[in-house]
Amino acid sequence: MHALSQKNPINRRVIGSTRTSLRIAETDFLSDEQLRDKFQNDADGILQAYIHVSVAHNSVEDESRYRVPKLMIQDKSWPWRKRNNLGEKDCTFIVGTRSIAIHRFLLQMESTVYATMLQTKHYLESATGEFVIEDFTFPTVRAFVQFCYGEDISDYLNSTTRRMDLLRFADKYDMPNVMATLEEFSATKIRVTNVAQNLECATKYNAKLLKTACEEFLAQQ
Predict the structure, then answer these.
(1) Which of 62, 128, 183, 218 could pair with 210 in a Cys bridge, judged by C-beta atoms 3.0 to 4.6 Å apart?
(2) Where is the BTB domain (predicted)?
(3) Domains plus CATH for the chain?
């Protein structure tokens, strides 16, 4: 038996009248002999090894063949957003000649920037509830609104460019929930053909999880 750990501690837990934990190693690799040496006089000991696994596919075909594609959707604690009648929408995004409405309280929950603007009287938007967007496309803003209401937007985010534009949107308006979900989703879409773009955007827009995933992908090549 081999135990791999990525420099996480390997603990021994003793079962009996008392429960204790003793760190026995912190290493990248532990051999059979080393494990036996640690446990040879401890018949009741239980080894706990915590292993982090990261998987990436080289093509869309690989992903569809070996697993169900990940959805870009709200966390399980948010399904009420889609089910419940939340009343009249009282905020509007305006992008060029197009607009899309959203509930004010949802916007405040998702973005600290918008929350500050809506709660501070000297901002015109706090009175009008209207936000003019000039540096993002309407589809990007619409994808964000759909995400707020618990819709799956993975089909729209089928290109690296669209994912990175939403990442930029989430970074600019400080949207930690969108950012975390999008980083996790984007990490499953890393390919040889897009890893450079992902890494560049992850670095620029403070997406640490995605950056780490890109670096791990490159290390495996």
Answers:
(1) 183
(2) 89-154
(3) 3-48 (no CATH), 60-219 (3.30.710.10)
